[in-house]
Amino acid sequence: MEDRLDLKQFQTELERQTKEFGQWIISCEIALYTLLNLHGEEIDHVFKKLGCDSENLKKTLWKNNKLNKQRDSRLVTHTTLVSILKKCSKSGTYTMLTSLLLVEGEIPYYYFGLTYPEFHFREKIKDKYLTEVVNPVGNKNPKEIKIDHCVDMTFGALASDEPFFGREEELEQMILVLMRRKKNNVLLLGEAGVGKTALVEALAKKISKREVPEELWDSHVAALNLASLIGGASGRGEFEERVENLFGQIKKVKGKVILFIDEFHSIVGLGNDGSFDLANLLKPVLARKEIKVIGATTFREYQIYVEKDGALVRRFQSVPVLELDKEETYQLLRNVKETYEQYHKVYYQDEALSTCVDLADQYIMNRQFPDKALDILDDIGVIANRMMKKEVTPEMVRSFIAKKYKISIPGSNGEAGNEAGKLQVLLASLFGNEQEKLKLRKYLLVSQFMMQEENITNCLLEFSGISDCEKEEFIKAIRYSYFPMKEVYLELDLSTYQEKHTISKLIGAPPGYVGSQESGILVEKLKNFPRLFVVIRNAKAAHPDIIAFLKKVIQGSMVTDIWGNGYRMRNAVIIADECTEHGTKTGQSEFGEIAFGNVTFKPLTLDELEQATKVYMKRLACNLKKQNIVMHYDSSVMDWVRRSILKERKEEVVKRDISRNIIETIAELMADNSSKSKNVELYFENDKLEYRQGGKDYE
C-alpha cells in the first residue's frame, strides 16, 4: 500500500503556496508544485525511473505561474482540483501525483510535456510499477452483475461516451447519503427533463472510474425494469415471488448493488390492489438495510402518490434536482457540443448555442432546461447535416424553431423586416385612416424590438372606433403578415364571460366538475404556441375578475392548468377591439392601463368608400372567373353602387348588398357546370340588376 497523504497539511501548504505565487485560484499546477515540495524525496524515484528530473519541473512551474502581486483576497479552488482532492481524501501521495499528471486537458500534463518533450506519460504508465502507483489497490474494470429484471448501469457506463457536466452538488449529496449507516437511500425529486436519470448515469460512471470514496468502489448501480417485473405475473403470489427472488439476488452480492427505480411513484400500488404492492414489499427490506435504493420522480407525483406513505418516505433522503438556469445550460451546451459535432459532422457556433438557450427559454414553456435546449441542439445538427452545412448558425436555429413550433420569430431569415414589409403592402391596399396606418406600423415595430430585449412581455393594442370603420381589415392585415398560421389565432368574445366561473372556459374546470380532464381554450393554445395573436371583443361585458386575469396573463404571469403545469404567453400581439358609439373614446377602457398603444379609427369618406367598393368588385370578378364567368359592368351599375353608398354609408353593408345582388342575378349561370367560358355584362334597369351576354368593363 502507498503511504497516506495528510490532506489537512497538504491543503494548508497549498493555500500558502498560492499566496506566494501571487494567485487567487488554487490550481492543479500549484498543487503539483506543493506536492513536489512536501514529498519530493518520496516521489523523486518515480521520476528517476522514468528518466526525468523533478527539480526542473518545479522551476518551470514556478517560472510560468509566479505573479509579482500580493493576494489577501479569499482563495478559490479550481473545480478540477476539488474533484482530485475528494478522490484522494483516503488515498496516498502516489495517487495524488498521478491524478494531477493525468488530468485530461489540464495544464500540469502540458507543463510536464513542455519540460520533457521526449517523455510520454501515458505510454510510460504501462510500466508495472507505475500501474500499481496509479491504482495501488488493483482497480480493475467492473464485471457485469446479472440480476433478473435489472440492467447494470455501472458496467454500461464503461462503454458510454455520453458526457455529463455540472450537478456536482447533487452528486455529492447522493454519495453522502449512500455512505450513511442508516436511511442510506436517495430520492431524486425534479421536473421532467432536468436530468435526474442523467445524474444516476453520472454516478454509475464515477463508480466505474473509482472517482468516488473507497466505500463505493465495488458498488454497481442496477436499473430496475418495472415493466419486466410485473409483465405476465397474473397468478396470485407470482408477483410477490418475483420481487422476493429479486431481493434475494441483490442480497447475495452483499451490499454491492444500488437499485435504481425510475418513476419511483409507480411502485405505490404496483403488482397488487391490496396491501402487498411493491412499495410495501420494499419497506421491510430497506428497514433491515439489506439493499440501497435510488428513486427518481417529479415533485407533483411525489406529493400525490408517495408522500402519503410516511413509512416509505422516512426511509429515503430527498435530493432536489432543480432546473438549470440559462447560464448553466449554456455552459453545459458548450461542454457537450464536441460530442454532437462528432456525431453530426458539423460545427456549432457559440452564438448558435446561446440562441438555442434563449429561444428555448422564450418559446418552449412546457419543458425544462437542459432537456429542451439539448433537443434543439440535436435537431439542428441533423438538419445542418442533411443540408450539407458545415456550420450551425444562429439564423438556422431561429428558422428551425419558427418552423417546428409554428411561430414567427423576428430575426429568422430577416423575418422582422419581412413581417413589417408584408404589413405595409396589406395596409396600402386599404383606404382611409392614413395616420392610423403609420401609428399601427410604428407600434408593432417598436414592440417587437422591446419584446426581444425583454422590456415588455406582450404587445397589447387598443382598437377603438364605430363598428364599421375597417378595423376588421386592419386586424386581418396584422394576422396575415405577422401570424400566417391559423393555429396561433385566438378570438375571445368576452360577452360570454359575464360570470366569474366562466374562467373555466379559459383554463379548464376544477377537479370534480364536468370537463375537469380537459384544458381550457387559452391553456390549450399556450401549450404549443406561446406567441399568439389574440383578438379580444366586448370587454365591457365581461366579469371584472376575468379582465383582471387576462391583464395578468398579458403582462407575463403564468397560467396554470388543473394538473399544475404552467404556461406563459410570450411575444404575443393582443388586439382589444372596443366599439364606440360616435367614433370617439370615452373614459378609461378595461385594458387601457396596460396597452402599448391606441389606434382610433374614423369612418371612411364617400370617396374612400367608392374606391374600396371598386376594389371589392374587381376581387369579386376574379373569384367568378374561377367558375368560368367573365364579369363586366356598365356605367349604370356604378351609379347603382354610388346610390347604395349614399344610402348605407357603411362599407360592410355596401359590400354585402353588392355581392348578394350580383350573385342572385347570375345564379343560373353559376349553376351551369359546363367548362365553356361565359362573358356577362351587368347593367341596372328598372330598379333591378340584369345581365346580358358579352360587353366590356365601365372605365
TrEMBL record:
<dbReference type="GO" id="GO:0005737">
    <property type="term" value="C:cytoplasm"/>
</dbReference>
<dbReference type="GO" id="GO:0008233">
    <property type="term" value="F:peptidase activity"/>
</dbReference>
<dbReference type="GO" id="GO:0016887">
    <property type="term" value="F:ATP hydrolysis activity"/>
</dbReference>
<dbReference type="InterPro" id="IPR001270">
    <property type="entry name" value="ClpA/B"/>
</dbReference>
<keyword id="KW-0645">Protease</keyword>
<dbReference type="Pfam" id="PF00004">
    <property type="entry name" value="AAA"/>
</dbReference>
<feature type="domain" description="AAA+ ATPase">
    <location>
        <begin position="182"/>
        <end position="326"/>
    </location>
</feature>
<protein>
    <submittedName>
        <fullName>ATP-dependent Clp protease ATP-binding subunit ClpA</fullName>
    </submittedName>
</protein>
<dbReference type="InterPro" id="IPR041546">
    <property type="entry name" value="ClpA/ClpB_AAA_lid"/>
</dbReference>
<keyword id="KW-0378">Hydrolase</keyword>
<dbReference type="Pfam" id="PF07724">
    <property type="entry name" value="AAA_2"/>
</dbReference>
<dbReference type="InterPro" id="IPR003959">
    <property type="entry name" value="ATPase_AAA_core"/>
</dbReference>
<dbReference type="InterPro" id="IPR003593">
    <property type="entry name" value="AAA+_ATPase"/>
</dbReference>
<keyword id="KW-0677">Repeat</keyword>
<dbReference type="InterPro" id="IPR050130">
    <property type="entry name" value="ClpA_ClpB"/>
</dbReference>
<keyword id="KW-0547">Nucleotide-binding</keyword>
<dbReference type="GO" id="GO:0006508">
    <property type="term" value="P:proteolysis"/>
</dbReference>
<dbReference type="GO" id="GO:0005524">
    <property type="term" value="F:ATP binding"/>
</dbReference>
<keyword id="KW-0067">ATP-binding</keyword>
<dbReference type="InterPro" id="IPR027417">
    <property type="entry name" value="P-loop_NTPase"/>
</dbReference>
<dbReference type="GO" id="GO:0034605">
    <property type="term" value="P:cellular response to heat"/>
</dbReference>
<dbReference type="Pfam" id="PF17871">
    <property type="entry name" value="AAA_lid_9"/>
</dbReference>
